[in-house]
Design brief:
The chain contains 7 helices and 6 strands. By secondary structure, it is of the alpha/beta class. α4 links the parallel β3 and β4. α1 crosses α2. The longest helix is centred in the N-terminal third of the chain and has 16 residues. The N and C termini lie far apart (about 70 Å).
Length: about 260
């Protein structure tokens, strides 16, 4: 939201998107900016400035923020999706392709990359988002951004996505946070929390295509999953000797 604290929000988004080189299941991959196009451009510029300051390199080296991807194939796949996204109309605000790290030539390097799907304008939430950077899970330090006019539009875009593992809203307005909390179709919702992964005693749950089976793991669902139900029916014959009673179903009011 345009009323969110700018400095802390940018810092949180940059960390959630590019930490662990974007290779975690709950990495922040899409940001929906709410407000006019000019304000959206300012947010994109701030995100670029924050991401540009990250250091790419070996995780054992001091001061490194973004390590390598897991394999050369992962780099090739991410770079192919980036190129395809640009061909489909995205603006590459920050290009991390071809990153080099001194002393580690030939490594699986990909620097922070930001793709703007609505450069200088707004996305029409009535249209389907077909850009490859949005429809495919890149699993790399790549952040996709788009701008919409209102919170209603942002919720509509979020709910139109076939997946619903987690979503977050950044705002200083309690009413906006409450609306997002109740109307967003995601299993885990963060309010000013970029990666809304709960502690183990709460449920880790997806929504829509982000869930398989009848129950989730963690929390009460996890207890239920690992619980074997047992039903015991007993009949104690105190003081009745060998009288085992009848074999018919007892009826109310009948001896």
């Amino acid at each position: 939201m345009d009323d969110a604290d700018r400095e802390s929000t940018v810092r949180a988004i940059v960390g959630a998107a590019f930490g662990a080189a974007g290779q975690r299941c709950m990495a922040l991959s899409v940001v929906v900016l709410v407000g006019d196009a000019a304000a959206g451009k300012e947010w994109v510029d701030d995100l670029k400035a924050g991401a540009s300051g990250l250091k790419v390199g070996c995780g054992f080296d001091e001061g490194v923020d973004v390590g390598p991807l897991i394999s050369p194939e992962a780099v090739a796949r991410a770079e192919e999706i980036i190129a395809r996204s640009i061909d489909e109309g995205a603006e590459c605000v920050l290009d991390g392709r071809g990153a080099e790290v001194a002393g580690h030539g030939g490594g699986n390097w990909l620097g922070p990359t930001i793709l703007d799907l609505t450069p200088g304008g707004h996305y029409d939430p009535k249209e389907e988002i077909t850009n490859s950077a949005y429809t495919e899970e890149i699993f790399a330090p790549v952040l996709t951004v788009l701008t919409v006019p209102t919170l209603d539009d942002a919720i509509r875009v979020t709910n139109a996505n076939p997946y619903g593992n987690g979503a977050a809203v950044f705002t200083s307005d309690g009413a906006s946070a409450r609306r997002f909390q109740y109307e967003c179709e995601a299993g885990q919702v963060g309010i000013n929390v970029p990666v809304p992964v709960p502690l183990p005693f709460f449920s880790f749950t997806g929504n829509k295509a982000s869930i398989r089976g009848d129950v989730n793991f963690y929390g009460k669902s996890g207890v239920h999953f690992f619980t074997q139900l047992k039903t015991v029916t007993s009949n104690w014959q105190w003081g009745r000797g060998k009288d085992l009673g009848g074999v018919t179903m007892p009826l109310p009011g009948k001896k």
